[in-house]
Amino acid sequence: MVEILDLIFFSLLGVIVGIGMGLLPGMHINNVIPLILSFSMFFTSPYNLVVFIISVAITDIFIGYIPSIFLGAPDANTSLSVLPGHRLLLEGRGYEAIKLTIFGGIGSLLISLAMIAILANTFSWLYEISRPYVQYLIIGVVIFMLVSEKKLNKILPAILIISLSGIFGVIVLGSTIVKPQNVLFPVLSGMFGLSTILISMNERSKIPKQKEDSSLHISKWQLIKSNLLGSVAGIIVGLI
Description:
By secondary structure, this protein is mainly alpha-helical. 75% of the residues lie in helices and 0% in strands.
């Protein structure tokens, strides 16, 4: 009974921390995991630590859409290159975007849990089969992303960005000065945190008045289909 109460306590504690993280622009679970692990001695069991981290991560994903949509708003000229939520915001449908993320998040969470319960025994087998070919899958995704730019003046900068990120990764993870597990915290803080803050400082976009409309401009079938596709895609990405 005591162990169950401990799990509930750390789960609720993780939700509180996740809400705080989610409301801070630029924060990500990858930023704080090294910090959380440094306090692992305060957790009475590794199960409590796992429950806490998962609670923080899931809550952060849900809440993080609020500052992402409302505070990370792009200029109207760049709205097509960012999240669909930003496009809805610029159309005055920011509240609808938040509602859609809630429906999508809860729906895909329930579907994913059901699929994991059914397919749990096959994951280790699928992992072993796919492991030797993961690099080819990643290369294929990168090539597809480059080709999807279509125009040469967009493909060349994309190649440059990918090349620089690869060089950066080799330098950071191959460094003998700092251990890889120690260097991830400042690197991820810079990638997920500072970059977003610096870009937001330069934004001069004007957020239009938002419509407080309770209706969703999407059919039930589209909502179900999106949840199913998103759940399958999320499990595949998580697996490989």
